[in-house]
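Box 3.1 A note on notation
Throughout this textbook, protein chains are presented in two layers. The first layer is the amino acid sequence; the second is a token string describing backbone geometry. Keep the layers aligned when reading.
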Amino acid sequence: MSIEINGKSFSESPQPGQCLRTFLRELGHFGVKKGCDAGDCGACTVLLDGEPVHSCLIPAFRAAGHAVTTIEGLAPDDGIHPMQQAFLDAQGFQCGFCTSGMILTCASLNQAQRQDLSAALKGNICRCTGYRSIEDALNGKSNIEDADAGAAFGRSLPAPAGPHVVRGTERYTFDVALGGLLHVKMLRSPHPHARIISIVKTAALGVPGVHTVLTSEDAPDRLFSTARHEWDWMDPDDTKVLDTVVRFIGQKVAAVIADTEAAAEEGCRRLKVEYEILPDVIDPAAAIAADAPVLHGDKTKENRVANAARNIVAEIHGEFGDVAAALAQAAVTYQGTFTTQRVQHAALETHGGLAWVDADGILNVRSSTQVPFLTRRTLADLFDLPPDKVRVFCERVGGGFGGKQEMFVEDILALAALKTGRAVKFELTREEQFVATSTRHPMLVTVKAGADSDGKLTALQLDVLSNTGAYGNHAGPVLFHSVGESLGVYHCPNKKVDGIAAYTNTVPSGAFRGYGLPQTLIAVEAAIDELAKQLGISPFEMRRRNVVKSGDPMRSPPKSKYHDVLYGSYGLDQCLDLVERAMAAEAPTPDLSADWLTGDGIALTMIDTVPPAGHFADCSISLRDDGGFDLTVGTAEFGNGTSTVHRQIAASALATTVDRISLRQSDTAHGGHDTGAYGSAGIFVAGNATLAAAAALADQLKQFAASMLGENPDACALDNHAAVCAGRRTPYAMLAASAQSLGKVLSASGNSSGTPRSIAFNVQGFRVAVNKFTGELKILKSVQAADAGRVANPLQCRGQIEGGVAQSLGAALYEEMVIDEGGRVINPKFRDYHLPSFADVPRTDVLFADTSDALGPMGAKSMSESPYNPVAAALGNAIADATGIRFTATPFKPDRLWPALHEKFGSG
């Protein structure tokens, strides 16, 4: 077989049945990504004779006699294609995992196709950007700026990985060739609840290429949590690497390790497992009933399970004042019960990793993770290894959204590498991602609210039932967070909270962007609107009368033991004003028939910039011989933009430019510690550590220059890549040479403990049109205002907000993991799970409050999670304003809206 790839002829033959995607990757074309292996996402797009195709659907042998172009070959002679340059100029990517496929599709479009991008890009999914920057690239718009030395912070500088991302040469988890690699595949439970009686391995071990089968007998008999937090007490110890009891369909039963994935899969099929079927419970309300089957009867409060006999993993109860009395005396009241569904993170790079034991006896784990340091800690504990004998690291991560604040694969990787002594690979399929990792917590939320005749809130109450699934990873923290800022942002003398997180025999829930707030905000913000409607007050005015102001206590019951959340800056008032003006501004009148009803809706959110109880980051920086700097941080890059902002912080503090800052990150071998890139801490915590290190080095540079010149350090300053003392300039390279001649290295370190914490604010506004006879919904206007402090990188921050709105719209309008009455996920693939495509996402106007945070690095604060939070709530309020009907369950699909619309308006 002869196949032309990027202008070169290859004579290698594919394996029988092999698809073009895997064949190309075997030949080293790592720009061809795996996002779904079903033709649904476009990450694997290549050009076949100039036409874009999903290479996962093309049998490799069919490419014989044709010309295949991957992203690496789009431009000849290592140059750059105009479309690659356009994506660089527009910064049309975030995590970048979809970018190779997206660029190839865009490069193939003719002028006619460009006129209908909704159709032209329907085969390419981006989970991060919200598509605006991709459209900018196609329109030839440049979004990037330059910055002089010392002026990088606050400028829209491009991501340092950009040139590699657009060329397909940026390395993700599996973009490396390891010799002698073994492959791991899991046999997973077909039952929602069962005890494993026996596993017969004989037939599986007889499959050619199978090396071993690992079961609970081979794994550590220890309980832990897949959730990764700085402190273990935040989550229950209720999970084992491989257990003798399975509690959901998809749970790991046994691992087969083989020379090829095909052999490992066949080995799984040959395993014979005898199960004792146990009673199951799928509904959380039924799970906490007195006679329900018990999932974790062997767990106790020592395992941090609140009430195992009632399937209650965590609960929270508290009251300020007397809510019942306040409701009885209120001028107006509202009560409603709201349900939110399971949502998948759908990061295009699935969970997975590589592991091996090197010549020094160090277990190396290369993983797609947000938390390499916390993962190392748990692996060392589980396998009784000294921490310095475990290395966990990641290259660029293809999306996270909280889903990779877990340890779903690294324990199996470590077990397999330690047992076989070989390098091993474990990469989840898209279906496994749906059925065997984690989801957003589905919640049932009842809100009660009251206000006086002046529109002042007198009572707020939340009753929350959260479905944590079969295991309690993140159950407590998500529950506690969901009832925190959602109530704390409002002044109200009487507040009450009752919340329970329940075990069920379903796929586990876990960390997800927003961490519980989006689910409760739908209820709280609906209540604010309904009270305003009864009083004849505008939604904006109702909120202005009740939100906390700078210096006010932010209270939600029960009383917190953490008192380190401060007003580093306050821009909520500005955000409300910005959205109100934007929504009132004249806009083109849509051409809609009388069948359409239009309405406006808003919602707001407040979020702590750091999780409680400490979030830690170390950083080091040193001067190089060439006058540049080496910066080392622990936090991971997965489209959150931290790798750009860390360089901006350091360059500004050191009066240099970002091109002179080399960044190393997310590798435990670099030393130090980093809690991880979650809880919006990548800039606020790790950025403060970078600022501390850079500022310390800046002082060193001035002191060393002063000593060289015999000047007072107070007379020295840094300017344009040099130290200037009493008018005499000493370039950094000269300082480095002088230091080296004295046997000195000019370097510094910095750290941050994540306290005190600040708060960020977002306000979302929508104008919608709803067809009263079909339930179809159109978004006519979308605007979000954000208090991000001093915006470190306006381009990237705007992208985070646009992407957050787009992802949240998916959850609000159509994304839904459907679980049948037997606990099985029935739509575990993208084509049956509606991810937002280019055609689905409206363009959102992004506006920034003018504030500077006293606690964040150079005045900045977090803005990665919070844009997601108010979207569904604002959309629900807009639909209610348009239709006069309060819909209380997401997603707001047309078929869900239609019954109530039909009852009110008829069939037309």
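The longest strand covers residues 457-469. The two ends are 62 Å apart (CA to CA).
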